[in-house]
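This is your field. Please look over both lines of this record.
***
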Amino acid sequence: MVDRGASAPSLPDDWPAHPDPILALNRMGSFDWDLDTGLFHMDAQAHELFDLRPEEYDGRPESLSLRVPTAESRRMDAIVAQAMKDGSENYGTYFRMRRRDGTLRWTHTQGYIRRDETGRPRRIIGILRDATQEVGDLEARREQAAQDEARRRLTNVVQLATAALAHARTVDDVIDVLRDTHGLTRLGATSLVMGLVEAGRIRLVADGPDNSFVPGTKVTGIDEPYPMSEAVRTLSPRFIESPEDFAERYPLLWRSITHLNITAAAYLPLIAQARPIGAIGLLYSDRQGFSPEDRNVLVALGSGIAQSLQRAMLYEQEMDLAAGLQQAMLPRTIPSVPGCDVAVRYRAATIGGGLGRDIGGDWYDLIPLPGGRVGAVIGDVQGHDTHAAAVMGQLRIVLRAYAAEGHPPATVMARASVFLHELDTDRFATCLYAEADLSTGVVQVVRAGHIDPLLRRGDGTCRRVPVEGGLPLGLSAEFGRLVYPVSTVELDPGNTLLLCTDGLVEQPGADLDEGMELLTSLVTYGPRDVRDLADRLIDVAEERRGDDDVALLLLRRHRLDAPRTFGRIQQHVSPGDPEALTEARHMVRAAVRSWGAKGQSDEIELVADELITNALMHTEGSAVVTLRLLTGTDRRLRVEVEDSSSALPRRREAGDDGVSGRGLLLVETLADEWGVEARGGGKCVWSEFVVSRREG
């Protein structure tokens, strides 16, 4: 409260003979201190301020000790001495004065030092005034400022905690924010504990720091004598003002936490939708008690934590539902297909800077097909929610169904697009469908707005396979453009076909071509085994922590004893065309003999003739006859007759004199194997014969 440097009042040189009337009017007393004689003259107003009668004062400064406490007198003497020593012209300070009735009041003094021509102090003149109201106002302002600062600090605690919790998406995220050292600092606490209500009990989910856990409190009952239990039970906070208060109210808990040096604590219920979901305890080692403002701010803090916790719980429930839905929609297992190795992987997107996994519509599928063929599907439904996962599941099912019915790849894609359009959803999907004949290595690929596949050769080199494509599923039907061009890829033994969604390719700040080049490089120098390669690619996607899902399917054709087609001939037979039927019979006979099965020629020709005749008699349309020579563990000759009818052939009983009804019985008797496959809108009836090695 030193007022160094303040300007002194202008007093006449002959003061105190003629005191300034302006000072008296302002209720200020004045003094004149003669440093040579030591006399300290005061006017009437100064006497009144010191509560001294004129006859009670002899003019000597030490006589004022009756009114000025010793500590205050020493402090003022030091101030005056320092001012005279360092050449100051004036000084000022507040000091306490004891009145006649023993009460203390604040007084302010200000003095002006007059020196002679050598600079020696000779005289101090100055004023005195009552500063009781002034100091009182100053203290009130300081107290108000301290309260405002405390309120601001507590408000900042809520704001900082709320800001930190705003990024928490899961319960673990909320716990991490609260348990973190910075989290404790934000909360202004030395230690904390948090529990969640589960099945009528409180399960401890967070405590900190590391040495603050109390044994036996991992799971406690709501009716037990703990402050957290009381907060949950009564839905009201519990404020503990002091160590004595803690020990008296909760002796069982206090005995276990004395080493934490706790001086106060606040246990807040976490209430969501009028029911308790848990409680949090904040323990302090640097405070005593809680003001009304403190309590209000802490209650607000508990409300914010409860909202974040409820939001995290609802998010986890939604994610569990979505993840369960997606897992149910994705294939539970990938079938083993002779002639190839397959690896599939799925990685959910990382959302919000790594705070969690989101759910999406990416999918893969592998569809075993008749005749040594297999269908591989990769696709991506627009969006990241349960609706995208539901649409994905429906698309996967219909694509599998259309492929299993025997439709060619372009038809499979077109029908899937119509199906998605008729779902009346606002979602579209990209998709790539590849149908591979593992016996020949021929792969037919159709693309609906999806990224191109990659092909890795046996020597490790990898290239992008350009596939002419159509519109995404759902959009093609909407715009009436259902044509999906078919591209053909040769998949030699040892080669690998890679299908993926764009989450594996796209990167922030890079275009699609750059992403494809990087993926091509990763595949080129990646592991040889498709499973190891799939793991490596997913690890790379995990390191990027991208905001899109990743689905991946790798299909590697390998050298097995699976049948390979060494010959294939085909003949179209129209109904009512005897010449075409005759040509088909000649074709069968010539092929059987040229392929070294002359000894079985009659049986094969008879079965082929029966199948052709049945197709022409019992269907409305033409028939396509195909003969294949397959080699593997044995040599087989396969006869296929395809027609446009989906009606399956039926075995009938022939009468004693009947000529009809013996066809399938004949086929079953003569062929080693036979069966029926769906082919688009029709079917294919086939039979196979194990043939001996080429006859000389």
About this structure: The chain is about 35% helix and 30% strand. Confidence is low (pLDDT under 50) at residues 4-11, 352-357. The two ends are 126 Å apart (CA to CA). The longest strand covers residues 104-115.
